[in-house]
User: What shape does this take?
Amino acid sequence: MNIRPAEDKDRPIIAEIHARSWQENYRDYLPADLLDQQIPTLMAERWKNAEIGAQDVVLVAEDDQVQGFVAVWDDEMPYIDNLHVRSDGRSKGIGRKLLAAAAGAAEENGRKAIWLHVVVGNDRAKDLYARLGGMADGIDDKDLYGTMVPNERIIWRDIKILAEQSN
Assistant: This one.
């Protein structure tokens, strides 16, 4: 599995993986018509137009094809906005490797901590983050295309803990 910086040519496949992941994992949280009718177009537009700054980190994992991606938006404490892996690539360590590589890149940019949101009820993801040293840090309601969804904040106060999880 090769982890590399995303390129402009990867934007359509990133959008496709993002949309499919939402369709597969957010059925209990978002309206079916949003997931089935709107999300593919919304994600295509989002990734087509996404401004990726010099300190932002967007990585893809690929073998014969792109299997997943992670996007981290830089700030004083970088925010892991997206981590999505194709359904047939899950439970193979791809997400862990993407997170570790992204945290390592943010650490190289001088960042000391990193955080993300995870939908309350997404226990599979929360279990992964806990195994990787993430700590629960409260709940926020997030507006996901017109639907308020409770999300738990997960934080790594020491980014090294996450960056060292590549094995």
Residues 19 and 40 are 5 Å apart (CA to CA). The first helix runs from residue 11 to 25.
